[in-house]
Amino acid sequence: MAEKIRQMSDSMRVALLLALAGGFLDAYTFVTRGRVFANAQTGNIVLFGINLFEGNFIGAKDYLVPVFAFFVGIIIAEMIKSRFRENAALHWRQIVVLIEFAVLVAAAFMPQSCNTAVNALISFVCSLQVESFRKVKGNPFATTMCTGNLRSATEHLYNYHKNRDRAALENSGRYFLVIALFTAGAGAGALASKLFHLRAVLFAAALLLIWRRAEERKFDVQSVNTLILLILAAGFAGAKLFFLFAHWGEFCADPLGALGSEGFVVYGGIVCGLGAAWLYCRKHSLPFLRWVDCFIPGVALAQGFGRIGCFLAGCCFGKPTESFFGVTFPAGSMAPAGIPLWPVQLFSAVGDFLLAGALLLLEKKRRGDGLLTGTYLLSYSVGRFLIEFLRADPRGAVGTLSTSQFIALFTAAGAAAILILRKRGTQHG
User: Fold this and answer.
1) Crossing angle of helices 57-84/41-53, nearest 10°?
2) DSSP string, 85-121
3) How many CB atoms lie within 10 A of CB 24?
4) Is 175 left (phi over 0), alpha (psi -120 to 50) or beta?
5) 0.85 exceeded by pTM
6) Is residue 331 within 8 Å of residue 299, measured between CB atoms?
């Protein structure tokens, strides 16, 4: 009985994460890929019908293709489930996650001219996800749309009002919570699309990687999903707060304008995300370093993708240079136009990707908890301290150092402490 209750609780946490992802991908394809929905096939069918009867057959095709891809994805998911259901070495859901990761990474690097293909691929991915999870505590539920969830939520709420059935009220709350997470995901997807454009979908891919690594280590599903959501929320808030501190004068002059700006500080996200993870692990008696070690390669990977987005947007730009590395940004970019600049965003991206790969290789040595976390923090801090000498965008200063360089000194010291303490612990053990 206890195991059944735990599984039901786990299913709810998974549902919330899938709803968040569902909203994110819908917003991504709608904002960046021609106003087509990745998940909400009802919307695509409506738009297909409108364009068809208006005689816009080319436009109608753009909405029909993802519907067909969604159809194919359901069939493929059922085939994978049937083929690998009894496979003890590799769960069929892990295969689905690996396919999703590969498809999303590929889609991120396909140009606007391939929007129809990208929408088909992401709709295919969404159908795999939806088919893998369809119920919460025995109740039908969807991450692809909110109409059915809203109907169910309202129906349960009415039953509670009529019969004072506590279970009906709880079910209603679950449906409304799923709707809220879907909405939050859509907002996050729209914001990420605005900041990182076509590459925004890579953040969803990085989350899938983290989730798979946690499953491989047989971590508690409920804790994994809660921690992911908590780190995302704390990281986003921290990145914005550190930006406001670094631009305090601008914030005082125009608080709403500063809050609504596109500015974020990566270090703020790292510090607050890790802080939130530590508090959660401490509260629930979980080994903090072991859990962070699981997540940290995905963090490095997501940062690399984010820096590619920075390069495309022109933000976080470098100083002028006459070297052959110089990149000239076009008019309308956030970087100064017509001047060869150091492509520091690409340098950072390459460093982040190499760091993610190094962490995955280092993990195979299995030398105790904290090795990946300490290595990541130390490597990132040193790299960030050095790359700052080539940056030219305004980002605050503490004496002769930039704000990021100043913070890097403390994070490097903290990383060194983690590595030293864990080494001593390993030796004594």
Assistant:
1) 150
2) TT-SSS-HHHHHHHHHHHHHHHHHTS-GGGHHHHHHH
3) 27
4) alpha
5) no
6) no
